[in-house]
Amino acid sequence: MSHATQSQDRSRDTHRRSDMMFWLQGRLSQIVIAPSFFAILIVVYGFILWTGYISVSESRMLPNYEFAGLSQYERLWSMTRWHIALKNMFVFGSLYIVCSLVIGIFLAILLDQRIRMEGALRTIFLYPMALSFIVTGTAWKWILNPGLGLQKFVRDLGFDSFTFDWIIDRDMVIYTLVIAAVWQASGFVMALFLAALRGVDQEIIKAAYLDGASLPRIYTTIIIPSIKPVFLSAIVILAHLAIKSYDLVVAMTAGGPGVASDLPATFMFAMSFQRNQLGVGAASAIMMLVTIMAIMVPYFYSQLREQTHD
Amino acid sequence: MKIYRNILASTALISAMATGAATADPSIEVLHYWTSGGESLAINTFADAFKAAGGTWVDQPVSGGGGDAMNTVLRSRVLAGDPPGMTILKGPVVTEWANAGALANLEGVAERDNWNEILPPLLAEIVKVDGVFSAVPTDIHRIDWMWINPDLLAKVDGTVPTTWDEFNALADKLMAAGITPLAHGGQPWQDATIFEVVALGLGGSDFFRKAFVDVDPDTLRSDTMIAVFDQMRRMRGYVDDNFSGRDWNLATTMVMNGDAAIQIMGDWAKGEFMAADLVPGEDFLCAAAPNQGGYIMNPDSFAFFDDSNATEDEIAGRELMAHLLLTEEVQIAYNLHKGAIPARLGVARDQFDACAVQSMTDLDATLENGKLVPSMAHEIATSSANRGAIIEVVTEHFNSDMSSEEAVERLVEAIELAN
Amino acid sequence: MIDVNYSAGRLSFSHVLGRGFIYGCLIFCAVIYMMPFLIMLSTSVRPLAEIKSGTIIAFPREITFDAWTKAWGEACIGTKCSGLSSHFWISLKVVIPSVLVTTILGVLNGYALTKWKFRGANLVFGLMLLGCFVPFQAILLPMAQTLGVFGISNTPFGLALVLTLYGIPFSTLFFRNYYVSIPDDLVKAATIDGAGFFSTLWYIIVPLSPPIIVVNIIWQFTNMWNDFLFGASFSNGDGQPVIVALNNMVNTTTGVKEYNVDFAASIIAALPTILVYVVAGKYFIRGLTAGSVKG
């Protein structure tokens, strides 16, 4: 900046030159982003269009481009299993997001209290995120199996009436998925919030503390409101993980007992690749995408508008 | 083993002359999901035979979900224009792939090796599409088996049941003695396995065919079908509390260890007993489930993909492999591991155990009297869409308190949606 | 960080109680979080006979590493009995270049989208972002066809390309949100000094980027390493990545289940991602603090 005040003449020259440079380099930024953008345009939007077309075609085992109108959608919506999957998505998604948030924030606040061995504890809470359910699925199945795992363990300790058999109970099985999924993601949420807590202005907190405000009060009235944006980020990430949940179901329950723990992602896979009803599978994929859009587009819109106002 | 290799080497020579492929280096890429235990040993006998005949075997295993993962891979590879050489394809799926123009025509090998003579007609029917051989059957599994722990049977003075009423009486007696009657794993395909065995036992082979091959709505909602679901409800009472999600081989272990008396399962269960050095007839019993003299068969078959870019080596590999699959030596070696009986007729029986020999005898009999039916649960009787729809209702009924009347209505509805 | 010890005089009974509660909660949670991993670890060093006879939640009475050597070099996957080792190297070969490329593209995209804004930059960003949310099962078949057209299906290169493509949206998101928080004046000053697009990137932006690079590497490495669907569909035979090989090993349909080998194999397959989290975990929080979670 001091540079610009040194000499008017030189500065005008520099400006003209840098204007041109700026123009060229403005193009440069478009050139730089173009490959990624067009690749995404093809592999995301192009392929979604393809799926959309399949959903209104006669496709069964292999893609078949004969137009079938909305018959695949009609079929989809008359399937009991699809309704079960949707209901499960709702139960699973909302519980998963709420529990991960509550536990994640709770752990973040605890870890923020000048804890010894914070690094080790943080790693312990975070490591589940590093593991695929293909790795941990068997261990989870064991723990939840009443004849092998937790129930047997506690009963062997002498508590004969202890019962924990959700995984074989049609009405409860969806909650076992929630447990495992929360175990995986809550550490990540903890990391997001811990990072945000570290970014809060210390002076305000100190002032409130010296005014005699209690710690819980400081958290609820000052700190948490000031990190609001993180909630949004966390919810978006969790929502996207919830909608994509697939390995989890396959590794733990394979959709059972019956089809009681089916989710839209497993439904789509089963229809497309096991049942040879590719058209129905594509229709369910489009329904999933529509749901995702309905959540995401308002979020992007508000976020981008906010930032343009900065 | 040495003798075996010699035989292989000689068949290789013959086949090389027969196919006139002496100049090519036969190679084949095999996509399969048989990654463990008896199944991996079984497919290894193919690999050994192929290698002994001078071929290059490229293994491409994708396990998971009883072949579901493999089917996904298969589809993406075919769409990518890069199909594998050979893969496991069963029942109506062979027809679906052949109609899509994806499979190689095997008439040449079939004619040279006389497949029409050496295969049971019903089996040849399944792998033929429009009269053309499109896949090679390699074995016949029987589904309607009961695997019984003789000590537990003796404990309640029971005999092997031959009707479902007898079965229920025995199971009630076992229950009263504090023994779990039925070893079962609550996975949809296992539920469906019991279901089709019950359906054959209560309805007979004509009913079975009408219901699962023709998927005739009137049969599906008939009183007999309601009775089948009623029996399923009883069966639900005969399993232990932890059955949900249990693998079938763990259920077999329960019978072995005396934790449960009977398992209804295809003859791959025998492999588990054999692996534990148990003797059929002494340490465990194999008996046909109450089936009105029927036989539910589940043949495995392999199909070869037609790739317009296939090299000479790959075509030679295909011809050689198709030939080897049905040679007597490979059939015996393979089926001893697989626990099934050979697809080829007239194979020497002396190496097979008592259960397998009974299976061969019953197969011959049912081939004669027309009581042989294809398995629904194991993808032979009907399309994947129909099968999936039926299994879904069966497993939902088994795992809930749905009434039999509701179950048959759901069955009819599900079949409508699948077509 | 909230410092509750502003004056030593406040160190009261209730304070000690509070600390006790905090540590109690944390240690309780840590034990629960560790449970699945501890079960895997203890099972992997127990002999098979002991596992079958006892309960699963138990300390090993006898420790053996046989299962580990078997899982690494001897266990059978399909007809080949050479364990996970070769698949492990394939995963590294596929994943490392993909992570590097997505990182470089993320830096470039984030920089171009924030510091050299053009008309429609936000729209471009929004469209790219939606790529994060596509269920991969839905695009499997068209991707297969596309790879086939280019003749790279079932090659490590093809697999790496797919992983990279679907990694771009997240990398762009991370870097863009991070660079938004870097003052534009820094870039302006540099350009006035005559620095161009790339020299500004190199001398001003890249030196500020390590925290977000760590976040990106952790995220991409974990996702790509753990990928199953693409790995199973777009690789063949000896070229299968380790997670696919693990699945083939663990998903037995017949035969005696060797739980100790299964679990040893699971841990081996998970080691690199665990290592990344342990080593880089500290920087992960730091990177997130530095701005990527803003807004």
The CA-CA distance between the termini of chain B, in Å, is 50 Å
Structural class of chain B: alpha/beta
Mean of pLDDT of chain B: 89
Terminal CA distance of chain C reads 20 Å
CATH superfamily of the largest domain in chain C: MetI-like
Return residue spans of chain C where pLDDT drops below 50 for at least 5 consecutive residues.
1-9
% residues in beta strands of chain C: under 5%
Rg of chain C (CA only) = 24 Å
Task: Give the domain tally of chain C.
Answer: 2
CATH top level label of the largest domain in chain B: Alpha Beta
Total of domains of chain B = 2
Q: Pairing-aware structural class of the strands and helices of chain C?
A: mainly alpha
Q: What is the CATH topology assignment of the largest domain in chain B? A: D-Maltodextrin-Binding Protein, domain 2
How would you characterize the largest beta sheet of chain B? Answer: 7 strands, mixed
CATH hierarchy class name of the largest domain in chain C: Mainly Alpha
- Helix percent of chain C reads 55-70%
Beta-strand proportion of chain B: 5-15%
Structure in words:
The complex is a heterotrimer of chains A (310), B (419) and C (295). Chain A is mainly α. Helix content of chain A is 75%, strand content 0%. Chain A starts with a helix and ends with a helix. The mean pLDDT of chain B is 89. The two termini of chain C are 20 Å apart. Helices cover 70% and strands 0% of the residues of chain C. By secondary structure, chain C is mostly helical. Chain C is flat. In chain C, helix 1 (13-44) packs across helix 13 (259-292), helix 4 (85-115) runs parallel beside helix 7 (156-180) and helix 10 runs antiparallel to helix 13 (259-292). Classes of the chains: A mainly alpha (310), B alpha/beta (419), C mainly alpha (295). Chains in contact: A-B, A-C, B-C. At the A-C interface, helix 2, helix 4, helix 5, helix 6 and helix 7 of A face helix 1, helix 4, helix 5, helix 6 and helix 7 of C.
Walk me through the topology.
The complex is a heterotrimer of chains A (310), B (419) and C (295).
Chain A (H helix, E strand, L loop, with lengths): L1 H5 L1 H48 L15 H7 L2 H32 L6 H9 L6 H12 L5 H7 L16 H26 L3 H9 L4 H12 L1 H17 L2 H6 L11 H11 L3 H32 L1
Helix pairs in contact in A: 2-14, 3-14, 4-8, 4-11, 5-8, 8-11, 9-10, 11-14, 13-14
Chain B lengths: L1 H18 L7 E6 L4 H16 L3 E6 L6 H12 L6 E3 L3 H8 L7 H7 L1 H4 L2 H7 E2 L2 E2 L1 E8 L2 E4 L1 H6 L8 H13 L3 E3 L5 H25 L4 H4 L2 H15 L10 H10 L2 E5 L4 H7 L9 E4 L6 E10 L7 H14 L2 H11 L2 E2 L11 H16 L2 E3 L9 H15 L5 H15 L1
Parallel strand pairs in B: 1-2, 1-3, 8-9, 11-13
Antiparallel strand pairs in B: 3-11, 4-5, 6-11, 6-12, 7-9, 7-10
Helix pairs in contact in B: 1-15, 2-16, 10-12, 10-18, 12-19, 18-19
Chain C lengths: L12 H32 L3 H6 L12 H9 L10 H31 L5 H10 L9 H10 L6 H25 L3 H9 L4 H9 L4 H17 L2 H5 L8 H9 L8 H34 L3
